[in-house]
Amino acid sequence: MAQPLLARLQQVRADLAIDVLAPKWVLPLLQRMPEVGEAIESPFGHGELNLRGRWRLGRSLAARGYAQAIVLPNTLKSALVPFFADIPVRSGYVGESRYGLLNILHKLDRKAPPPMVQRYLALAGRPGDPLPEAPQTRLAVSGANLARGLDQLALQPPSHTHPVAILCPGAEYGPAKRWPVEHYAELAGKLGSAGFSVWLMGSAADHPVGEAILAARPGCALNLCGRTDLASAIDLISAARVVISNDSGLMHIAAALDRPLVALFGSSSPKHTPPRSGKARVQYLALECSPCFARDCPLGHFRCMRDLTPERVFGEALAAAGRDR
Ligand code: SF4
Questions:
Q1: Beta carbon of 116 within 6 Å of any ligand 1 atom
Q2: In principle, which of 34, 220, 223, 240 could form an S-S bond with 210, CB 3.0–4.6 Å?
Q3: Ligand 1 atom 6: the closest Cα is on which residue?
């Protein structure tokens, strides 16, 4: 979501060097963004204030002489390090009343909040500037990294005659964003019959979902959820013939890798966080109750995802992969 902002900053000023301060788990993603010079680890846990630690980190960064900091999260604590680092221009949204901590303040239109990409992109300019078109961005993967990722998991390299379909059945936000396990199992079976090797990808938290898919249809896929770090997940997704994903971080990664993609939306909205790729096929039933943005279906029937049939998604996956039925 933030990469178009980085690309826009370099569009405006080609010699601009951009470093990004982010949690450790995000660093592999940043290291694959051509716009990023250095990815610096932020050691603070989610919700942790640690004022002294933030002061120390800020003071250690002060020597680098950064000209500007753009703060993407809206929290007060996220604005502390740039302030302690004496960075002269510090911009971001007002968020948690960050008057003084930031000195270029953007206001969010809460009645009609823009999609996330545009929300971040606005931070490339001054408040009120017309919004530029979001630049197209890509993640860069090297052949050596991919070979290492395949080797670590003893996977056969994908090829034209050995295509791989990657399914991403998790979604950290909650069950209402997850296409049902039995639908994934049926889809995996169909893809296997069509000659694809099927890999399930996700975090360790998604491993039980992967196991449930295998329990519903034994042998239909290889459960790699939790067996890759983010870096190797990115590298492996780059080799997929097609990716089928819930509305999750891996969906955006597949889009940024320009892989053929079927993106499944139910309780969330493809208008809010669409995959940024011309190769993405969004599947969204747009029921009257959608999007509800709930973690669990408040109506109990979960029709937004249940009624999205494996047969339909299979057809989309084949079309995305450039294959006939
Ligand atoms: S209320 Fe509607 S959109 Fe929300 S989870 Fe249930 S079926 Fe899906």
A1: no
A2: 223
A3: 297
Determine the Cα–Cα distance for residues 52 and 42; give it in Å rounded to an integer: 14
Residue 273 has pLDDT above 90, yes or no: no
Residue 275 in tokens: 């995959």
Ligand 1, atom 5, lies closest to the CA of 297
pTM (2 d.p.): 0.85
Q: Is the CB of 298 under 6 A from ligand 1?
A: yes
Q: What is the pLDDT of residues 175-217, one digit of tens each?
A: 899 999 999 999 999 999 999 999 999 999 999 999 999 999 9
Residues 6+ apart with CB under 8 A from 306: 180, 183
Give which of 132, 199, 211, 133 is closest to 162, Cα–Cα.
199
CA 56 to ligand 1 center in whole angstroms = 46
Query: Quick check: CB of 287 below 6 Å from ligand 1?
Result: yes
Q: Which atom of ligand 1 is nearest to the CA of 267?
A: 3
Strand partners, 166: 199, 243
What confidence tier does 113 reach under pLDDT thresholds 50, 70, 90? confident
Measured CA to CA, the distance from residue 282 to residue 140 in angstroms comes to: 24
Distance CA 200, CA 232 (A): 13
Which tokens sit at 8? Answer: 């826009």
Q: In the chain, what are the domains? A: 3-124 (3.40.50.2000), 145-320 (3.40.50.2000)
- Give the pLDDT confidence of 37-57 residue by residue, as tens digits: 999 999 999 889 999 999 999
Distance separating alpha carbons of residues 283 and 308, to the nearest angstrom: 8
Looking at per-residue pLDDT, the higher value among 314 and 231 belongs to 314
Q: What are the C-alpha distances in Å from 248 to residues 184, 254, 300?
A: 15, 10, 22
- Which two structure tokens, joined as six digits, stand for 69? 């900091």
